[in-house]
């Protein structure tokens, strides 16, 4: 019998929510566990084995000097490396500090800032090492995650959808919150994968799956301005969980410059 594929799951700077999507999969996880060898998954077991690994999942952004070294070591022992979630693929909510005075941010957040050793910027894993597949979302969608692992175990690489949330919204017959209520929604520029979860509850999307391809962020920004928002308010919409993704960041920066030049 051929040996089972060795799978590892590692965490960088994150809240563990994407790993929990895997742990909460119950029956599907048990089935998966029969098909693979879980060699290193600190959230699930204290039995931590060294590489090499056939498939490695990485949650979280690169936020400390130690993580810069750790991710290179992980890459060196991983045949296929998949990053999961908004932190690993675009820097996460912790990337809100990027471009600000780190010492001041740390001082405002922590009562003992002298113990905090962070990098100036929180960055996606792909800025540091080659990544073979990215799954976005905050958290990552469980169905997409299990599906991707199943594809990989069969020797194929999945292609997650990059179309906007609006497509899913229309497929499911949800009422558009922009049209019906004049509420700003990032659905037109955010990639699907969640099943249009927020519009299903009559709320605008805040972009947790990151930019769709290609995202017309400038057209959407103009629409938000027409709704009566100021350039800085529109910029804040783009600067959220996946706000460090280039498409969202560049539009936010342009809007902030526009507001600054007008005052
Ligand atoms: S609610 Fe948002 S995601 Fe749904 S159709 Fe309207 S703009 Fe698109
Ligand atoms: S609708 Fe947008 S913010 Fe809500 S879960 Fe989906 S991608 Fe995330």
Taking all residues together, what is the mean pLDDT? 95
Number of helices: 12
Number of strand elements: 5
Order of helices and strands: EHHEEHEHHEHHHHHHH
- Catalogue the unreliable spans: none
Query: How many distinct folded domains?
Result: 2
* Share of residues in helices: 40-55%
Kindly report the spatial arrangement of strands forming the biggest sheet: 2-1-3-4-5
Bound molecules: iron/sulfur cluster
What is the gyration radius calculated from CA atoms? 20 Å
Largest sheet: 5 strands, parallel
**CATH topological fold name of the largest domain:** Rossmann fold
Which geometry do the CA atoms define? globular
Strand content: 5-15%
Q: Distance between the terminal alpha carbons, to the nearest Å?
A: 71 Å
- What is the CATH superfamily of the largest domain? NADH:ubiquinone oxidoreductase-like, 20kDa subunit
CATH class of the largest domain: Alpha Beta
- What class do helices, strands and sheet pairing give? alpha/beta
Q: What is the annotated CATH architecture of the largest domain?
A: 3-Layer(aba) Sandwich
Sequence-ordered SSE layout with sheet pairings:
Elements: E1 6-11, H1 17-23, H2 27-35, E2 37-41, E3 53-59, H3 65-76, E4 78-84, H4 85-90, H5 102-109, E5 133-135, H6 142-153, H7 165-172, H8 177-181, H9 197-200, H10 217-226, H11 231-238, H12 246-262
Parallel strand pairs: 1-2, 1-3, 3-4, 4-5
Task: Offer a quick outline of the entry.
With 263 residues, the protein is α/β, with parallel strands linked by helices. Helix content is 40%, strand content 11%. Helix 11 packs antiparallel against helix 12.
